Amino acid sequence: MVEEISQSTREQREIWLQEAHYNLFNLKSSQVFIDLLTDSGTGAMSDKQWGELMMGDESYAGSRSFEKLQKQVEKLTGFQFLLPVHQGRAAENVLFSTMIKENDIIPGNSHFDTTKGHIEFRKAHAVDCTIDEAFDIENLHPFKGNLDIQKLEKVYQSYPKKQIPFCLITITCNTSGGQPVSLENIKAVKNLSDQYGIPVIFDAARFAENAYFIKQREENYKNWSIKEICKEMFSYGIGMTMSSKKDGLVNIGGFIALNDEKIFRKASNFTIIYEGFITYGGMAGRDMAALAQGLDEATEFPYLESRISQVELLGNLLIEYGIPVQKPIGGHAVFLDALKFLPNIKREEFPAQTLALEIYKEAGIRGVEIGTILADRDPETRENRYPKLELVRLALPRRTYTDNHIRYIAAALKNVFDRSDEITKGYKITWESEILRHFTVKLEQA
Hints:
InterPro entries: ArAA_b-elim_lyase/Thr_aldolase (IPR001597), Beta-eliminating_lyase (IPR011166), PyrdxlP-dep_Trfase (IPR015424), PyrdxlP-dep_Trfase_major (IPR015421), PyrdxlP-dep_Trfase_small (IPR015422). It comes from Cloacibacterium normanense. The chain has helices at residues 10-19, 47-54, 64-77, 88-99, 113-121, 149-158, 183-195, 207-217, 226-234, 261-274, 285-298, 301-320, 338-341, 351-363, 372-375, 403-418; strands at 34-35, 81-85, 105-108, 125-128, 167-170, 200-203, 239-243, 254-258, 333-337, 365-366, 368-370, 391-395, 427-431, 442-445. The chain is 41% helix and 13% strand. With 446 residues, it is an alpha/beta fold. It has 2 domains: 10-32 and 301-445, Alpha-Beta Complex (Aspartate Aminotransferase, domain 1), CATH 3.90.1150; 47-298, Aspartate Aminotransferase, domain 2 (3-Layer(aba) Sandwich), CATH 3.40.640.
């Protein structure tokens, strides 16, 4: 299917932004020409997925749709226990309710915003162990999502085992620019964690894209299929959380998959409390069936090559224009370096948010800030946390836009970049929530 999108004038967009308190999440979709806010649940399903919707089994317990999903997940991951949930943060809520307690330490590679939010909501602490190369946008390290083994071991040595319930590997690592984690690094994390008796869990929303980069960039796996690489990756963990709205190629849904029956039994209780019965957990049967098919399609090389090549097209066009982006280009999005793009905006006036708003004013393109607003305040000092990078993420929905749209986006960004010296004022917060403020924050011009 296709949907109509409408262009607007700059004057209209400036009024809409003011009405939205300069928060792009508050815009109506009808006010957006090209929507790159997220790649989560915004893609297009295939004919086979639509066919599965028609065959969904809506039985409350033990549906055929659940059986399809369970078999597909076990085939791809090797995890035998499955708990469907309505989306990725629900998977985090269930699993973290099971495994995390106050003052726990959760090391990982640049935890995603909702992940960190769920950890800090439980008065635990997320510790970033990403390699330093991830924070240098010009560094062409092929696996900028990797964990620094020395940083990780320092965490393991600094806290007792009972305070570290697991190590979390995010594949691909969204917050560092959609960057992949190598299989070599996954193995090293697993080996080190085994020495300290700490299990490994994957945040696997974009696991198929991660497997694609492993096939392309790790010599030992160039002749492996994507599905083989996926199974190998997951063999180094005890479980995973999944937002199926990314590499599941569906508009809603998620799951937890585990090989630890004790954790599964405990998590089952929280699934029933928060989500629904353990064989549907907040998903309709038809959506589970479409997800089972989507997981199969997303782990085929031709699809991944087409999808990631389109992201690379946008990134390479911007590089040609001299626009500062995270390199190499990530799997699901292009990330703009707002500090270099808008050097005249003070950190306390939120350069990344300012850039995202300027892009929308210019061309009706909606991206999202991955910077100070998203980083939230320190839960103890309540001071703003300033991340090493201030990024604007342009996330491409899967199987949605044409290359003509991509060229329009690039041209619009060049227009903003060419007048970036004229942009000297940012924004200030007038209202914010206690946690995950970026979704609902209200701003005004500084």
